[in-house]
Structures are given as structure tokens and as C-alpha cells.
Design a protein that fits this description.
The protein is an alpha/beta fold. It has a domain of 130 residues: 2-Layer Sandwich (GMP Synthetase, Chain A, domain 3), CATH 3.30.300. It is built from 18 helices and 20 strands. The strands form 4 sheets. The protein has an 11-stranded mixed sheet with strand order 6-3-7-8-9-10-11-15-14-13-12, with helices on both faces. The chain is globular.
């Protein structure tokens, strides 16, 4: 009965979503007007003359782009308990995330914005059901490996990690089949938590498993170590893997090996600031940009991001194949907010994008401006069709080597290393030069020498994250950085 109802509901939602999918510009205009009208009498709205804003062009003139640090004077007032600052009333949650320069960040979630997170996650599953007709994952147990659902009080507002907040909103029809237990979900120590999840789920009929890939990888590895079996043999009805937070490509071969057979996958693009996109097709790249989520989108070309008064593009102005910084305004009261992610559109009908990296995660020590998507694609291409398996990696510039020209150093933790590391370096460098023409010019111009691989000890990345107090949670190792802080810490473990 549950499966029949799910198929019917999936069809209804699919038809309903066609309204905004087929009318993207109109949907954005409607969202824009709604957001501006709602926030006119807030402190931010008064400070930025929202009463005079009628068009996105007016908005651009009145509201500059800000990141968290620049918006924090307003957020700090909300955290202190003030009302009507960025959005009417008080938030219902603060999602606590790790900041880059500001320490902990407190992202507001309002009664208007919270449902958009839940609806998007639901629609991602319903889209899969409608597209494939598959509902077998509803027969067994489902798990989303997530942060603790225990929340603190912050001046009358609940505070926690987004994944823990979302745990309070599991749909009624999934509550009886969700794993792990509430008590296990509340365990703070990440390694102990995953060990306990293994024990709780080992004998259950797990059919859907979800979470950030690095979390799921740890869970799968512990399952395999405990049983000496592939995950696909332990859970014979496991059929759907749901993931988000990072590019899955570098994990794909690892997961294929751990599972031991093919399972369907759904990729999500969620963040504390909003749920932006999900995979609606299996056969092609790109995530469907959500235009029913109370989010007004603007875009800045990444190659113009450092320029003063960079042009802010609206959805209908974007070009395919161009890297953009994602700028959002939302019903959580984030206005012209730079979330730090970069995206590239692969389709306009409907609008689909791929996440290409983080603005602050790049290498440009010599003007090459290498981004995350480029290093991930180069590594994928270099390992394709080989027995080489990479567990984790990060890339940093070596500006002052003891001898010879500077180079990019790839810190890689291999599960199965190449037999000839120097030969693999040449292949990887060739792929990297194909990805970034500026890097290629620097190699050919003898400004840089070809990349160098530094093999990192087993579980070195895990040990590093643990050493800085960021194992588990919503924390991820940056794929690349413009300094050597992470690389040097990893290399010191030898």
C-alpha cells in the first residue's frame, strides 16, 4: 500500500513541479517580489531602502553582495535575541557551521525557510520514484548518517547542525523504518557513533543509505571490516544511495569496491543556507536548480569575482560552461549572500548545474587559478580503467622547493597505489594540463615543473581531521588550497 501511494504522490508532485520548471524566469520574479515585500519593515529592509526596490536592478543598487563575515553584524544581533533584523520575527533555528575566518557561523533558519529544506529532500526521492517506478527502498530500513539531533538554546532559538535539525523532520511514513536509534544519533564522538551504527544496522534490511560520502565511506569500511563482506552482500536489498555535500566522482571507485555491485544513486546540493538542487535524471550530468524554494538567485563570473562592482547575472542571463559564484537571497533573511560555492550550468531547459568548487578553495600561486572541479576531473581521468584507487586527496602549491622549479604537490592517500608513481605523475599532469590552460602555459613556459605526488599514510586524512576537531559533522577536507597549511600537516604524519 505504501509503495502504491508513493507512486501516486510522486506523479502528483512531478506534475505540480512542472509549473516552475517550465516557467523559470516568472518563478524567479515571483520569488523576488515575495521576499522584498515580506522584509520591507525589517532592520535590514529599512537600512537598504527596500520600499524603493521594485526590480532586481533596484536591488543591485541598494544591496551589495556580502559573505558571512560582512553580514555578521546583523546575524550577531539575531543571535543576541533581537527580532525583525533580517526577516520578520525571530528564526526558529540557527544552523551552526564551521567558519573560515570567523570561527563558528550561525546561519538563521526561519519558519518560512525550514519547509523548503524538507520539501526539496522529499521531492528528490519522489522524482526518483516517478522517473524509475522503483519503490523497493521503502520496504526496508533507511538511514541518513547525520549529526546529533540534540539542540541547544541560544537566546530562545534552537541551535544545532543542519543534519541534526533535519532529523526532527523525518516524514511520518519513514519514522518507523529510519535508522539509527535516537540514542545512537545523539552520540557526540564520531568514531564511537559509527561503530554503534554498525552494530545497530548489521542485522537489519537496509535499503536506502544516505549522507556525506566521507561519512558513508567510514560506515561501509567498518561494516566490511566487521564481516569481511561487501556491503551489497550484507544488505542484499540495498538499492539506493543518496549523497551530497561534495563531488562524488573521487569516491565512485571506492564505493563500487565497498558495495560490490551497482546501486542507484541520487545526488543532492543542500547547505545550511538553503537546498539548491537535486539530481532529476540518471543518464546525464547536472542537478535541477530548484526555483520553488523561496530563493532568488544571482550569479557572478568567477573570473570577475575580485573586480569591484562585478556584474550580477540573473538566471536568464547565464551562459553554459561558465563558472559562476552562487549568490542567494532567501526567506531565512540572507540577502545577496555569497555562499562560497561555484557552479557551472550544463542546461537551460530546464536549468541544471554542476558544483565546481569553493571560491576560497583554489590554487593561484602563479596566476593559474586552478579550481576543485579541475583537479577532481583530472584525477578521475587519470585513474579510469586502472586498478589505482584513491581514498582522499588535497593539492597545494610548493612555491619554494629545496631545488628545481616550483610545482603543485598532490597529497594522496591511496587504497591501491600505482605500481609506478612517476609514470602516474606524468599521466595525472597531462590530464591536469588538459583541464586548465593557464596551468599548461606555466608548465610549458618552465615557470612550473610537472606535479609531484606525496603519498599520505593510511587514514592520514582522518587523523588530520580528528587532530583539528573536525572529524564527522559537516566537515570536509578541501580538495585544494592556496597555502600549505593542510599539506604540511598531512606530510608531517610520516
Amino acid at each position: 500500500m505504501k509503495q502504491i501511494a508513493a507512486k501516486l504522490f510522486a506523479k502528483i508532485i512531478h506534475v505540480r513541479n512542472q509549473r516552475w520548471i517550465k516557467n523559470p524566469v516568472k518563478s524567479q520574479e515571483k520569488t523576488f517580489q515575495k521576499l522584498i515585500a515580506t522584509a520591507r519593515e525589517t532592520t535590514f529592509g529599512k537600512d537598504h531602502n527596500f520600499k524603493s526596490i521594485n526590480t532586481p536592478a533596484d536591488f543591485t543598487k541598494c544591496v551589495p553582495i556580502r559573505d558571512y563575515e560582512e553580514l555578521s553584524p546583523y546575524i550577531d544581533r539575531m543571535v543576541a535575541g533581537e527580532e525583525n533584523i533580517l526577516w520578520p520575527g525571530k528564526p526558529i533555528y540557527f544552523s551552526k557551521t564551521s567558519g573560515t575566518t570567523s570561527g563558528a557561523k550561525y546561519i538563521p533558519i526561519t519558519k518560512e525557510s525550514m519547509p523548503t529544506h524538507i520539501t526539496a529532500a522529499r521531492d528528490a526521492l519522489l522524482s526518483y520514484i516517478n522517473r524509475t517506478g522503483k519503490t523497493s527502498f521503502l520496504k526496508g530500513k533507511q538511514i541518513f548518517i547525520q549529526g546529533s539531533p540534540e539542540l541547544e538554546d541560544k537566546n530562545g532559538v534552537a541551535l544545532g547542525r543542519l543534519s541534526g535539525i533535519v532529523a526532527h523532520y523525518v516524514p511520518r511514513y519513514l519514522q518507523k523504518s529510519r535508522m539509527p536509534s535516537w540514542e545512537t544519533n545523539c552520540i557526540d564522538d564520531w568514531e564511537h557513533k559509527v561503530d554503534t551504527i554498525v552494530e545497530e544496522t548489521l542485522t537489519k534490511n537496509m535499503t536506502l543509505i544516505g549522507g556525506i560520502p566521507s561519512w558513508i565511506q567510514m560506515y561501509f569500511e567498518k561494516l566490511k571490516k566487521r564481516t569481511n563482506k561487501n556491503v551489497g552482500d550484507i544488505f542484499k536489498d540495498f538499492s539506493l544511495l543518496v549523497y551530497g555535500g561534495v563531488n562524488f566522482e573521487p569516491y565512485k571507485s571506492v564505493f563500487n569496491n565497498l558495495i560490490g555491485r551497482k546501486v542507484d544513486t541520487i545526488e543532492l546540493f543542500p547547505a545550511s543556507e538553503g537546498f539548491f538542487a537535486y539530481q532529476d535524471l540518471a543518464e546525464q550530468d547536472g542537478l535541477l536548480l530548484l526555483l520553488n524554494n523561496d530563493i532568488f538567485y544571482e550569479f557572478i563570473r568567477v573570473d570577475h569575482i575580485q573586480q569591484e562592482n562585478s556584474k550580477r547575472y540573473l538566471l536568464h542571463e547565464i551562459e553554459l560552461g561558465v563558472n559562476y559564484a552562487l549568490i542567494i537571497s532567501t526567506s531565512a533573511g540572507l540577502w545577496a549572500y555569497n555562499i562560497g560555492d561555484t557552479v557551472c550550468f550544463v542546461s537551460k531547459s530546464p536549468y541544471r548545474l554542476v558544483v565546481t568548487g569553493r571560491i576560497k578553495h583554489f590554487i593561484s600561486a602563479f596566476g593559474e587559478h586552478v579550481i576543485g572541479k579541475e583537479v577532481e576531473t583530472a584525477l578521475k581521468n587519470a585513474t579510469e580503467g586502472t586498478n589505482i584507487r584513491v581514498r582522499e586527496f588535497t593539492v597545494a602549491p610548493q612555491v619554494k622547493p629545496e631545488k628545481g622549479l616550483p610545482y603543485h604537490e598532490w597529497c594522496i592517500e591511496f587504497d591501491f597505489p600505482p605500481k609506478d608513481i612517476e609514470a602516474f605523475e606524468k599521466v595525472l599532469d597531462y590530464e591536469m594540463e588538459k583541464q586548465n590552460v593557464y596551468y599548461q602555459d606555466l608548465i610549458q613556459g618552465k615557470v612550473l615543473r610537472k606535479l609531484v605526488i606525496k603519498s599520505i599514510v593510511k587514514q592520514g586524512f582522518e587523523a588530520y581531521m580528528k587532530s583539528i576537531g573536525k572529524l564527522g559533522g559537516q566537515n570536509k577536507v578541501p580538495r585544494l588550497s592556496n597555502d600549505r597549511k593542510i599539506a604540511d600537516a598531512l606530510i608531517k604524519q610520516d
